[in-house]
Specification:
The structure holds 2 protein chains of 2 kinds. By secondary structure, chain A is an all-alpha fold. Chain A has helices spanning 3-11, 16-37, 47-57, 68-86, 103-124, 128-159, 164-170, 176-179, 181-194, 206-209, 219-244, 251-271, 277-306. Chain B has a domain at 76-323: Orthogonal Bundle (Cytochrome-c3 Hydrogenase, chain B), CATH 1.10.645. Chain B contains 15 helices and 8 strands. In chain B, a hairpin with a 2-residue loop joins strand 4 (153-154) and strand 5. Chain B starts with 5 loop residues before the first strand and ends with a helix. The relative contact order of chain B is 0.18. Classes of the chains: A mainly alpha, B alpha+beta.
Chain lengths: 307, 389
């Protein structure tokens, strides 16, 4: 790959600028859908973009008592983690920009970088709401991370590879949703936990701890975190659609399947009341992990017997 | 060590609070170990204001004590002043007062269901109840011309009549609301995810409820049969009684159920009153000056017992007006109930009593070590003047 195409892939398409815009578009779709489900009008199509532009234009207040370097770098690391993860997934129905054996694990951990940075950002400040929010963010990370990874390893096991492009090719001609229904549900709900969407929004429950770990963030830092979350939404939806919903071989299939998933996510967000953090942990370790593990074991045994 | 405590301040400005109040919760991890409250941020001096105005003006002033249950404040004040003057409002006026009071209860309870659901992160229920609440607000606007501070009362009667056309509109509105309320009762008593946030949370036993003297739906959710409409009927509640709605569990779920079930009683009583609306005058004459006397007047506000003490001195204004809104007796229960619960449950426990801060705010002097003192009226007055200069 020549340097020029590599740069274009990194900065414009399919990574970089386009994925940022796609993140904003998906965020808008999510907000609009939830609003319509809740009998509200919802935001106009450019609202997320306008929010980001406004935030970028604003002064970034660095509060007293924080490590200024960390305070400024954490949002950058979070966003770059999400953007890097985007390079390894089949965005918009195209083949991943980069691919190597084992990139599935790397991608999953790059996606966790956002959560980790959010937690650190909260713990970095002296704000009491941020500290509680950081604790909750990290607690939640430990509860959904293992089942989410297991749910993505199911298709990997079936395809016999830890390379995302190979798994995507393998599942392109079969709907793994039918073979591994538990994995699909766990992956989808794990994605909600990752993105701190209701009912897993205890880490940023506004009625308790204002904005959680990001309470002290304003201006550019907040904008970068929000962009990162939008990118993560797209990447996560792409992964789940590519693995479980018969692949995303062309742009049409990509948009149809990810948007269908988004409708399901929005429906769940409006249907369910917020879980307390202890209930979230209990739910994941009592049901999510056990079910995912059981399915994983069945897969291993089945693979072993067939092979 | 005092500095070892991790204190979560909620308020005076906080997204969970719709009005300013200051709560401090000591937490150990997520568990609340101690709680304290400081109120008084929105004290408006309405009692004093009512004493410097004549009875007619004061009636409109006390109606502004609460933005949600404005009508019961005016009703309590009117009932008190009418008793002092020795007159009684005509039956039709009393019926209309009762209809507006029950419509107001519907609006208040629907509002509360929404707010409490929002505290639990269940915004869909919040949006839906507030949408349906518009129906009852439109009905109130149809009767009185106002959506919030209705001003339906005047001393000695009411200022607005309910004609057959409005009666029909109310019936249609109530039919819609009754159907929706059935759905909400179903949601608050069977939605599994929501019950995880309400069942067994903030349990107040009957003994606790009686010891802390809580009132209104909060008390009735703990099995305390306490309702002024039944214990000391006023208006036409003796002829057209409501049935006591009571739950034994004492948790948040019970508080939801009591309030939602009370809605059905309100629908029934309003329908009953509309079909048996007495004919006659809307107002009766009331003297401008009232001979020296004192009285108390109690009504059941949506949040519980509302208490008025009114003392007249022979002029056209009151010597003393004392108001005790239901939030005041209920507030202590928040502090007691939050201890031992998770921080996440605290906003719901607080919302569970349906607090109304500005209604209950009164002057508070913070006693510091060594400057305890008794203030004379004159000193207090001077302090007030200096404070706001």
């Amino acid at each position: 790959m020549s340097t020029l195409t590599a740069l274009i892939a990194l900065l414009f398409f399919p990574g970089g600028l386009i994925i940022l815009l796609a993140g904003l578009a998906y965020e808008w779709a999510d907000r609009k859908l939830v609003a319509r489900f809740q009998n509200r009008i919802g935001p106009r199509w450019f609202q997320p973009l306008a929010d980001i532009v406004k935030l970028l234009a604003k002064e970034e207040v660095v509060p007293q008592g924080v490590h200024p370097g960390l305070f400024v770098t954490l949002p950058v690391i979070a966003l770059s983690g999400a953007l890097t993860a985007a390079l390894y997934v089949p965005l918009f129905g195209l083949a991943p920009s980069y691919s190597f054996s084992g990139d599935l694990i790397v991608t999953v951990y790059l996606l966790s970088l956002l959560t980790l940075c959010t937690g650190l950002a909260g713990a970095n400040t002296l704000n009491r709401f941020s500290l509680i929010g950081a604790t909750r963010t990290l607690t939640q990370l430990f509860s959904y991370e293992a089942p989410f990874l297991l749910a993505l390893l199911g298709p990997a096991l079936a395809a016999g590879s830890w390379r995302i492009s190979v798994i995507a090719d393998y599942s392109a001609d079969r709907w793994l949703l039918l073979a591994q229904p538990v994995g699909f549900v766990v992956a989808l709900i794990g994605l909600m936990g990752k993105l701190e969407l209701p009912p897993f929004d205890a880490p940023e429950a506004e009625t308790e701890i204002v904005a959680g770990a990001l309470t002290e963030y304003s201006g550019r830092g907040l904008a970068l975190f929000r962009l990162g979350k939008g990118v993560e939404l797209v990447v996560g939806l792409t992964l789940v659609a590519a693995f479980y919903l018969g692949g995303v071989a062309n742009p049409l299939a990509f948009f149809a399947k990810t948007l269908a998933l988004l409708v399901v996510l929005a429906g769940l967000q409006s249907l369910l009341a917020r879980l307390r953090i202890d209930q979230t942990v209990g739910l994941w370790w009592r049901y999510g992990t056990i079910l995912a593990l059981v399915q994983f074991l069945i897969l291993i045994v089945w693979e072993g017997l067939v092979a | 060590m005092a500095s070892e405590k991790f204190v979560i301040p909620i308020g005076p400005q906080h997204p969970a609070l719709k009005e300013p109040g200051h709560f401090e919760f000591n937490v150990d991890g997520e568990i609340v170990t101690d709680a304290s409250v400081r109120l008084g941020y929105v004290h408006r001096g309405i009692e004093k204001g009512a004493e410097t105005r004549n009875f007619v003006q004061a009636e409109y002033l006390v109606e502004r004590i609460c933005g949600i249950c404005s009508h019961v404040h005016a009703t309590a004040f009117c009932l008190g002043v009418e008793r002092l003057a020795g007159v009684e409002a005509p039956p039709r006026a009393q019926a209309i007062r009762q209809i507006v009071a029950e419509l107001e209860r519907i609006h208040s309870h629907l509002l509360w269901v929404g707010v409490a659901a929002h505290e639990a992160g269940f915004d869909t229920l919040f949006m839906y109840t507030w949408r349906d609440r518009e129906t009852v607000m439109n009905l109130l606007e149809g009767i009185t011309g106002n959506r919030v501070n209705y001003s339906a009362n005047v001393l000695g009667g009411v200022k607005c009549d309910i004609g057959s056309e409005q009666a029909e509109a109310i019936q249609i509105g109530l039919n819609f609301l009754e159907e929706r309320t059935r759905h909400y009762l179903d949601v608050v008593s069977s939605d599994a995810m929501f019950l995880r946030r309400t069942r067994g949370i903030g349990v107040m036993t009957r003994e606790d409820a009686e010891r802390m003297g809580v009132v209104g739906p909060t008390a009735r959710a703990s099995g305390v049969p306490r309702d002024v409409r039944i214990d000391a009927p006023y208006l036409l509640y003796a002829e057209h009684p409501v049935e006591l709605v009571i739950e034994e569990a004492g948790d948040l779920e019970a508080r939801f159920k009591v309030r939602v079930r009370e809605l059905f009683e309100s629908y029934r009583v309003i329908r009953e009153l509309l079909t048996a609306l007495p004919e006659g005058e809307l107002t009766t004459r009331i003297p401008r000056r009232i001979k020296p006397a004192e009285t108390i007047s109690r009504v059941e506000a949506p949040r519980g017992e509302l208490f008025y003490f009114i003392k007249s001195n022979g002029t056209d204004s009151a010597e003393r007006v004392k108001v005790r809104t239901p939030t005041l007796p209920n507030m202590a229960s928040v502090l007691v109930l939050s201890v031992g619960h998770q921080l996440a449950d605290v906003p719901m426990i607080l919302a569970g009593i349906d607090p109304c801060f500005s209604c209950n705010d009164r002057m508070a002097v913070v006693k510091r070590n060594g400057d305890e003192q008794v203030w004379t009226w004159e000193q207090l007055r001077q302090y007030g003047i200096e404070y706001y200069r």
